[in-house]
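User: Mind token order:
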Amino acid sequence: MSEAKELAGPALARKSGVVILAAGSSSRMGRPKLLLPWGATSVLGHQIQTWRSLSVGQIATVVAAGDTTVQTELDRLGFSTRDRILNPHPEEGMFSSIRCAAVWQGWYEGLTHWVISLGDQPHLRPETLRRLLDFSASQPAKACQPRRLGHLRHPVILPKALFER
């Protein structure tokens, strides 16, 4: 059976780890935008709910070491401390969080793909994310990134070989 057929549809979701980037300082906003209300929860809570609704294999958040406000929100949401990745140098930017996630030893065995998801994108609909997962399943060895109006967007899906580089 081809790798694409093995990963078709929901199978890729179950074999995907989602990295929610939540270590940003929200410096332009002046307060943590991930904690802003969104529906019945927060922006961060909505992101977690959305990915859970897609039955992904694992969800982890990257948070700034020492950021008690985001940690408190994750506690309130019942998000396991086991799935929190601490970034000791968030001032180095988004890629420092991605590097922390790539070397983190807490990923479940058997994951084949990782979704890099910005924490401040609660507007992404489950149907859109499902289509992106389905497209990635048809191209299992390639990085998949949506494009809108000629601009590359998030989230990005990376196969294991690229994520661990």
Notes: DSSP finds seven helices and nine strands in the chain. Strands lie at 16-21, 37-38, 41-42, 58-64, 84-87, 113-118, 147-148, 151-152, 156-159. The radius of gyration is 15 Å. Residues 51 and 59 are 8 Å apart (CA to CA).
